[in-house]
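User: Fold this one for me? It's Pectate lyase.
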Amino acid sequence: MGVSVILRVCALLAILLAADAGPRELPATPKGNTTRGATRRELTATSLAGCGSGNPIDVCWQCDSNWESHREKLADCAIGFGRGTLGGRNGAIYVVTDPGNDNPTDPKPGTLRYAVIQNEPLWIIFDRDMHIQLDEELIVTSFKTIDGRGANVHLTTSITIQEVEHVIIHGLHIHDCKPTGPAEVRSSKWHVGHRRLTDGDGISVMSSNHIWIDHNAFASCTDGLLDVTHGSDSVSITNNYFSNHDKVMLLGAHDEDWDDKSMRVTVAFNYFGTGLIQRLPRCRLGTFQVVNNFYKDWDIYAIGGSANPTVSSEGNHFEAGDTKPVTKHLDDTGNWRSVGDLFLNGAWFKPSGEGSSSSIYSKTNSFTALPASQVPSLTANAGPTS
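Assistant: Here's what I get for Pectate lyase.
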């Protein structure tokens, strides 16, 4: 074999080996576990159950047998007021390899905390099943996706989304969160600050916009499972499974928080399961579309509110237990309507304010409701897919 042929063969082998060399580092960032267009953990099914459910979010990505090759296309699938949330799209994929309880002011590369404080957009995935229990709250910066698809990821520490934008939280088991702090916690690559005692919420969204919380399981935290407060806007809460908790979802913390008047939240395709007491959700001041959710029993009430909210309940499945009223009006203000809801076992909804055909409800139209008869199928795959 001639020398020129040998040289060409060697060059070709070098190219092939380089292409399979594994993850690429981001420039000037010593992670060692970031890559583009690759995954470390894949679901075994080529087509997931949600593909045939009629759920538009699930159909958007679960019908693609090669979804794991382009995870970031999930960002195209959001509906409602959170539509257009980018998360870490157009950034690198970051693979979490270390579930350890790291230093909250100086996290190690490979940990979830290290990933979420980086300045650049990142799509964060996990290389294996993990149970992550941190001593302090997990503070997430802008343009991040935490994507648990393909791994069974449990988090028993509160996630804080504060004064940021474009964050997607998908596919996590969030439970048994306890109060943390006061403590020093790193909130970005460049800043460490003093944090007060937290409430022990599952996820707390404050003063943030374009937030999408999808396909997670929430249970048994100290205070609320999911709070959206302090003027947050453009939020979608979809396909989550809630169980075994008292104060489930708070949308607006105080009647006097006037910045919440501009809040817009879509609550869709969630399964509100057994052991829930109240706040499914509890609404203040803003505009809320509660659409195509499955309600399986509640203790005090399902949907509550005060301080002049606009609440449009559309195409939901309400299956009452001992408590029959769906709603609790904590004052005489606001506009509440029910359109196309299905009420079983004596469940009933108390409307108030403007009639259901009033133009005031046009501002709630973030998504067109599907028939309530389809809700069992639409919510059958709520919660993480792994």
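One thing worth pointing out: The radius of gyration is 22 Å.
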